[in-house]
Specification:
The structure is a homodimer.
Chain A (H helix, E strand, L loop, with lengths): L10 H29 L3 H11 L5 E3 H8 L3 H13 L3 E5 L7 E5 L1 H21 L6 H19 L2
Antiparallel strand pairs in A: 1-3, 2-3
């Protein structure tokens, strides 16, 4: 009989994990609440508009957009429907792949993003970067990059 | 006229922020998916059961439970209703405060937590700690603690 022992967390790891959970949750809740209040969109929608704004013709296949925003296809479809109703994106059939769809940022969507960006960036700075030393910002980047490679292989 | 300039993120900060977002999202999605698959609960429910399991009589006021889990009252109420349907908690009127309610972990809830814990802790270790050096674990703890103080004042 093979008995696999659980590798329980030691007290330092436990404290690290709970602090990380609390910090990341509080950070995202602050940013989400402020974006909703000031720009009428949650952070997930903001991120979709950002990604579309950064590519040529401001258009991406839905599958690429899902990868870039770390969304499931179903969650992205739901968000895209809401963004389309707001007039901020359009969805079109993909010209080179009949099964695919592309999302296109509209002028109104670009304007909504441009209006939201200064307040949101200020929030990221105030809630995250203002609390950290330059060395900690560097540490957080290396830790986060290591986790992204570990978890997503990219 | 006072013109307030946006403190835009420099490229290093931008990279740190995007990597942090991608890492924390991928981490929570992995843990959520595994808990749902193996124990039939999302991470938010697991955390409620953990908090109740750690206090005397395994009972907490709903307001304390909301604070400990970083939940809004409405989100916690929704989760508590689901956990009560599963038979894992009971809600009772608070004996010392007629307006308040307490949540009590049931034996079935404790058993569900005990069954879920080894796999979940293994997931936290595999997805988070296994990717980091001991120095990085220490850095992440200090960064997270600084953010918790900054964002929640506690």
């Amino acid at each position: 009989m093979i008995r696999v022992m659980t590798r329980w967390l030691d007290p330092d790891e436990q404290q690290t994990w709970r602090a990380f959970l609390a910090a990341s949750r509080a950070l995202m809740e602050n940013l989400d609440r402020e974006l909703q209040r000031d720009a009428g969109m949650p952070h997930a929608y903001y991120e979709i508009l950002v990604r579309l704004s950064e590519v040529p013709d401001r258009r991406l296949r839905m599958s690429e957009l899902a990868d870039l925003t770390g969304s499931s296809r179903s969650r992205l479809s739901h968000a895209a429907a809401r963004l389309e109703t707001a007039g901020w994106i359009r969805r079109q059939e993909c010209p080179t792949d009949r099964r695919g769809q592309v999302a296109v940022l509209t002028e109104a969507g670009f304007a909504a993003l441009a209006a939201a960006a200064p307040g949101h960036v200020e929030g990221v700075r105030r809630h995250l970067f203002d609390a950290l030393s330059p060395a900690q910002v560097d540490q957080l980047r290396r830790i986060s990059e290591a986790l992204v490679v570990h978890l997503t292989g990219s």
